[in-house]
Structure formats: C-alpha cells, structure tokens
Design a protein that fits this description.
The chain is of the alpha/beta class. It is built from 12 helices and 16 strands. Helix 5 runs antiparallel to helix 6, helix 5 packs across helix 12 and helix 8 packs parallel to helix 9. The two termini are 18 Å apart.
Length: 415
Amino acid sequence: MLDYAVLLKLGLRRSSPKCFFRPPVFPYYFEIYKLNDQTLFEIPHPYTLIHRSELINHAGGEDDCWNYIVLPVSRICNGDMGRVIKLEVYQADHPNIPKGFALTTLRKMLIERELVIPISRLDGKLSNKICLYAPLCHEVPLHPFHYYLNKGLTLRRIYATDYSSSNWNVQLHRRPLHDIDSGRTPYEEAIIMAAGAIIDVAQGDSVFFGFGNTQMEQYIATFSQENHIRSLLSNYKEALYGAQVAMGGSAQPMDNNTNRIQSAATINRAVGTKSMSCLTPVLNDIASLISLRAESFDYHIVFIFTDGQISDVESSMQVILNLAKLPVSIILIGIGMGDLHQLLTLERDWAHPTTGEFPCRKIVHVIHFRSLVEWDSAIKILHYRSPPADLFRKEIFTPLREQLPGFMRIFRTAI
C-alpha cells in the first residue's frame, strides 16, 4: 500500500487588520505534536513531538511563512485523520516556554486548506495579536526515486570545474591540483568517479563549465552521451589550457589529437597563493540553463569540483535560494587538502545572513574526495569492504534519493 505525505506550509499572521503587531526582537519557530494512543490521563506526557521548524523573523505581514515541510501521514497521526494535533509557537529567546498553542486535526486542515488557527496563550485566553495559518496543506504520494525514472524523468548532468589559482598552491595542497604532467590529476580522478557513478541512469546531453576568479573567462561546452567520460576529460583539459593562458602561464597543447596539455609550473609561483574562486557566476549560469528547461520532465545533477577556497559564500547562498525551487541537486566535491569549511556551510541548514530566508528544500551535498589516494585511505581506515567506486556512487545517490522526490512532492504534485 502506497503511503502518503502531507505538504504543509505554516505562517504567522495578525489576528485583525487593525492590530499593528510590532516585529519582535527574536524570531519564532514552531513545533508539531501528535496525541498519543493513550488517553490524556494515563500518561504524564500525552503528546509526541514530530517536527520542529527553523526560525522565522516575523514582521507582521501575511508572507511571513516557514518553509515547506513534507511529513508522512503515518508520522503525523498514525493514519487516524481525527487524531488531535498540537502546534506550539516559541520565541527564540524563550525556547523552553511556548508563546502559545493551537489544537486541530489533519482532517480539518486538509478540508479547509487555508486554515487560520488563533494562538491560545498559556493562561487560556486567545491572543489578540497573532494567529497561526496554513496557506498550503494537501496530500502528496510518497513515490520513491525510481518511480519518477520509470515515468520517463530524464536525469541530466552538469559539470563545473574550479580553475582558480589557489589550485596551484603547493603549500596548501602539497601538489598542483591541475598538473597533468605528473599523471592523472585529482580533478580528473574525481570527474571519472562522478561520471561513472551515474552513467547508467543519466541521459541526454551534458554541459561542462570551467570557472575560477572574477578575471577568468568562463568556459562552457556541451557534449553528448556517446564517449561521455572521454569527452568530459577533453573539455576539462581544454578549459585548463584556457585558464593557464589567462593566468599568464606558458601552457601549450602538445597533441591536438589527444588534447594533452603541457602545464606551466610558474603559475603556482606567480598567482597560486592569492586568488580564490567565485562560485556565484557559474551558479547563476546553471540557474539560467535549468530555468530554460523548467517545463521539461527533467532533473539536473550538478557536480562542482573545487578546492573549497571560495570568496563569495553569501552571494552563492542567494543563488541557492533560487535553485532550490528548480529541479536540481548540487554535489560539491572537495579536491585537494585545503579547508572545506565553506563548502560545508552551504550544505548545512542555513538562513541567508542578510534576508534571513531559508531554502525551501535542501539541494546541496558535500563529498570529501580530496584525491583518489586519500579516498582509498579513508575507506581503509573506516574498514569499509565495498570498492571505492561503489562507496562514491552511494555518496551521490543517498542525497539524490531524498532530494529528487522532495522536489516532486512540492512542485510536481500531479505526477
């Protein structure tokens, strides 16, 4: 039997237009509880917590909403649509004492859809300032990842590789990360692992972006499914050649047939310790590309290979807010031995530092690849028995199996 979930969006609203509710100093959050099977008098704690929201800065307007939440019906009420649901509202400065509460049932919320629930104060009186309302509440099926693939969903791949000069910083990474003269680079190793992990499920043409700092001209290329990995590596080397020339290196192609490139060791000494990459421009280009395909039954997997030295985290967050509303998942693959703290900042639950806005869903996942040697070493230390390629594939598909159905439940509920 197919389980169903509830797509829910809650917010705060003034109880009366004549009531001018001043914005509080501290933001609000809410918690959802369900009544346990036993009666209120049989157990000391009759309710079970099933969801806690993020914080929201309430300004008194009707658009002050929390993010979309998708909760299985079995989790909300154990299949009993008449089970009492309790919603408690808290202020951040008093996390242990609810500001108010409201009681309802899932049946009532689904029937009325735009339900407005007055917030009762703990003294038993109704608040004359604010109420809790649900501008969106309806059932959505909990289809698994492969259901959408069987329905004809096309998985498309987008690759973006970082060529900023920090990748040539030997003191940071122990070796130039793009030095192909010394053998296969860590970027090539990661590209092969990522492309091989999804080659059996992804379809259609792929897009390759080369990006770096603000002075570097962006490289963009499209290539087909045929000879996918070979074409991908060819684009990687072409973009590398352009990046080296832009940074003042003396790189020259050695063989036009194989697209091999002679790298310039002088790049590391000249600019390798100064410039960090700018992620925002390539994210904007990716968002524009996906927006053109928004009406198609496609989902995009974006692999961004970078050493993690990013100079525009805050502006990247703003683009991710927009990307969260598009059919896309972003896999950030950390290369080299640098600090990946900024990448992890984009992966964690966050609000934009300026606007306080949260992404409507989680779309970013970070893989600490470093290099193939480091990846293998980590697997041995953790005593994993699976091959390295299988574990890399699992790292990709674990978040994808959650993020793709999550997008469909919020934005493609008719499927």
